[in-house]
Design goal:
Blueprint lengths: L2 H4 L16 E5 L2 E4 L4 E4 L2 H4 L8 H13 L11 H13 L4 E7 L2 H18 L7 E5 L8 H5 L18 E3 L7 H12 L4 E6 L3 E2 L5 E2 L2 H13 L3 E5 L23 E4 L11 E6 H4 L21 H15 L1 H20 L6 E7 L2 E6 L11 H11 L2 E2 L6 E4 L7 H19 L4
Parallel strand pairs: 3-15, 5-6, 5-7, 7-10, 10-11
Antiparallel strand pairs: 1-2, 2-3, 4-12, 8-9, 11-12, 13-14, 14-16
Helix pairs in contact: 3-10, 4-10, 7-8
Bound molecules: pyridoxal-5'-phosphate.
Length: about 425
Amino acid sequence: MNEFDTKHIWHPYSPTPQENIVVDRGQGSLIFTRDGRTIIDGVSSWWVNIHGHCNEKISAAIAEQAKVLEHVIFAGFTHQPAIDLSEKLLQILPGKMSKIFFSDDGSTSVEAALKMAIQYFQNNGQVDKKRIIAIDGAYHGDTFGAMSVGQRSAFTKPFNTYLFDVEFIKFPHESSEQETLQQFEEIVKNGDVAAFIYEPLLQGVAGMRTYSVEVLSKLMGISNSAGVLNIADEVMTGFGRTGRNFASDYLPTAPDIICLSKGITGGYLPLGVTACNSLVSNQFEGSDAARMFFHGHSYTANPLACAAANASLEILLSESCQFLIKNIAEQHANFAKSLDDHPAVNKINQIGTILSIEIKTGNESTYFDNIRHNIYSYFLSKNILLRPLGNILYILPPYVITNSELSCIYNSILEFLNEYKNKNI
Ligand code: PLP
């Protein structure tokens, strides 16, 4: 591959120019590169690839669908893959969801959720309910609405003046849950809050940091009593990641709106879903055109993406896949225990198939900690793909990862931590 072939491609979250590794093939947890390397994908290719690369069933489902209908306008027309997918999702989503709205990715599923919540209050005449609450450290995507409800940071700095105002509550650390609850109560008291958006139980981009079922369920309770809509952003936590189908399944009450993407198609094709309950959807019913939901994309409910999602869901719900998820969670837990007193480790977090290790640097944890470059290169040199969030090293593997591939990652992490402790890195 010469320089001319790649220099016109602008890669996301990458300095430009940058050398990029050319990948020819993927199989299971493995990525095969043009220069002859076999790399273990320890992050499921940006958290999407739940059943591994080139899964036979999903590939076949897309191929079959491509023979009969690749795409059709989704206004005034519908199709079987979307009908099947919405029925399956309604069966497994927490609570009693009533409608499935399709879009393109995680960010657009959040945009649709925010617009749905805002228009809900316009449609029901509560026009003063406008404010949105989010949690410090939140990440909900890169489009403007999604950025607005996310943490202001170096990522958003060039755009901050264009983002709408949001009330941020403090992250509910174990030691400060009460403070967060009081702050939340104070904000909703005014009666002008429309929605509370959160990543349930785990903030991904903020460093895979977890918070308790108890505090989230109290926050949701306060917001329910104040007539505020709860929006669960399950873009990264959905489809088995946390050990249950959805992180919201750990909670006693269901959200009003749920955002989904990433694992939904098994990492094959982009697809976003915003699901809502009948409290929300009823406000959009009727023949008055002014009440219809003003949102849509050209590729809404793309049949190939829906076919991939139907196949992916079937695999996810199978006994064998549930066993794999449980197995990863157990292996992670054992490895975490073995690192308990490691001098290079500050804190370990685990929920289901996600394991994160906060490396001691002597400074506060931040995404921009330079150690991330060293960690990334260290593991890549060992043919393991891990993309640390600053000094937070995490594993988020495809469910098909084998025990020996997992052991290989654990052993390399231990080696890294030992070398780091001895300051050889
Ligand atoms: N919401 C959460 C919780 C995410 O983690 C992400 C992406 O990492 C998004 C939304 C945005 O998804 P996408 O990158 O598909 O737009």
